[in-house]
From TrEMBL, chain A:
Signal peptide: none annotated. The chain crosses the membrane at residues 20-49, 61-82, 109-132, 138-158, 165-184, 204-224, 316-335, 355-378, 390-408, 464-488. The keyword Transmembrane helix applies. Residues 20-439 form the DUF112 domain. InterPro entries: DUF112_TM. Keywords: Membrane, Transmembrane, Transmembrane helix. It comes from the Bacteria. This is Tripartite tricarboxylate transporter permease. The keyword Manganese does not apply.
Automatic annotation (TrEMBL), chain B:
Keywords: Membrane, Transmembrane, Transmembrane helix. The chain crosses the membrane at residues 15-33, 53-73, 85-115, 127-145. This is Tripartite tricarboxylate transporter TctB family protein. Residues 20-154 form the DUF1468 domain. InterPro entries: DUF1468 (IPR009936). It comes from Terrihabitans rhizophilus. It comes from the Bacteria.
Amino acid sequence: MDSLEPLMQGLLVALQPINLLYALIGVTLGTAVGVLPGIGPALTVALLLPVTFKLDPAGSLIMFAGIYYGGMYGGSTSSILLNTPGESASMITALEGNRMARAGRGGPALATAAIGSFVAGLIATLALAFLAPLVVDIALSFGPAEYFALMVLAFTTVSSAFGSSALRGLSSLFVGLSLGLIGIDLQTGQSRLAFGVPDLLDGVEVTTAAVAMFALGETLYIAAMGSRMSETIEPVRGSLWMTRLDWARSWKPWLRGTLLGFPIGALPAGGAEIPTFLSYSMEKQLSKHKEEFGKGAIEGVAGPEAANNASAAGTLVPLLTLGLPTSATAAMMLAGFQQYGLNPGPLLFTTNPDLVWGLVASLFIANAMLLVLNLPLIGLWVRLLAIPRPWLYGGILVFATLGTLGANPSQFELGMLLVLGFLGFLMRHFDYPIAPVIIGLILGPLAEQQLRRALSISQGDPAALVESGLAIGIYVVCAIVLLLPLALRVLVKRKTPVSPPAQ
Amino acid sequence: MTDSVAPARKHRPDWAVLGIAFFLAALAAVIGWDAEHLNSAVAAYSRVGAAAFPLAIAGALAVLAVFTALSAFRSRSEAREPLEFTPLAYIIAGLVLQIVLLNSLGFSIATGLLFALTARGFGGKPLWLTIPIGIALCFVLYVIFSQGLQLSLPQGPLERLI
């Protein structure tokens, strides 16, 4: 495929000084935010969305992608040194990495995580560049029925992949879909669920919902946990560098983790959680040092970290080529595209090739920047872990309300923030996943549009939805997606002693 | 997971989960009621009107409510972390104060109060110290974002000084 030529064009875009600057800001912010316990990349993108909408689209999207990758790097730092995995995907890293840190081998653990992330990010981004045009070629033949099927697939994926049970995931999803209904129906001009409130006619602002659920909900949750969440930071003792033996034990897990992470992320069949778990159990099977697992085996950090990063690049395939977000951060990036009136999908590759390929090319640059930022500057990031929580969360809420007011300076919007934030808090408390709400809110209106388009072409005959083999195939995949994570979880549970990290 | 092999003894229903089921059912009812009031004749050219999608969602929510209610009886009550309400009250008070004071006192003062009350909720320094710090911080942010990024943020006495 002719990926090379547009990729070179994209590299020219990404290498423009201003875009390099955006990438640098993105990876720095992303790392900082990833290191801070409790706030993830999805929240950072959500907070920055409203304050960037006057900036250049290419630049801010490059920045968002930098945050995405940076958050992945930073997350491993807090998992290893603090044993508080911010997301389930880095739980495994905490498992082995924190043991290594306690044994005084925090340096090599951080190094293998960072270099592994770099290797995985590099390979997976290359794979993204070569796979994306192929998917675009197929996607160009899609009609509304196929798109609707794909969105159903995305809904199924997010609700079964996030959280502990499909029932909870689906409940979250449908709450999000309900929020997406609010406002004026674009085809008939009737208002739905607005109850005569004029502020609701435009619908629920995606950024407000995301900031409310991720920032406010999380803050309230942590606050309600009170003083129970005390943490000890493991200092980085000894050498930061990996020994020859560390290298020898790391490079194969990096490659295997990448091979697991990218396809599973790209499919999409279950986000970053499943590939990291699979990578861990695979490394344990293949390792010559099985007895070290659970006590700080370097393979158990190298493999899952690589898988984690590779799947992050993988999720960009459905996002860019089909407009389908399959993770919370991808959903926020979709909102980022939408705020500039851009719709990710096959057409974007022909209408805005510079932007898409500039974004892909910038991922290589971001990846290289992250390696440089993370290894020598690790001491700086560790200091971020020591920010007192009152200041940290006070600052988070200031930025949350600033972002919300930036999008729409009204008291009503802040009221929405409060209501949805409280909902997010309750969901967090009762162990309901947040990401499906946001994805339902973003994708719901798009799905309805495609559904109605498909049905009006067919004069209302619902059989049109399953007429093409492709659509049927996608629905079959949906069924598999609902059942596969279940099967994989059973498999993984049987093979690994995955106990939640010690409190 | 809900369907774990529970010993065959009588469970009391998990009231919190029942509450969630009730919430889902109520949401379904509201959406269904709202959809019934939509005039689908407006869009005669399109076979699927504005009501179809909401009705489908309401239906799905109703089904989910039933399954959630069932799970409340099936599973043992999960041990949830007990909540501390004082920090919650501080933060929510901060947010409510911000909403109330935003238009009269402006962004910096209202948001500075939010900062101080949130910090208090997390057991931070006393308010006489954090309120001025919060207001100063928010004023700096106001200057950066209103001048640099042209965001229009609500003005109060402090903001009118510049």
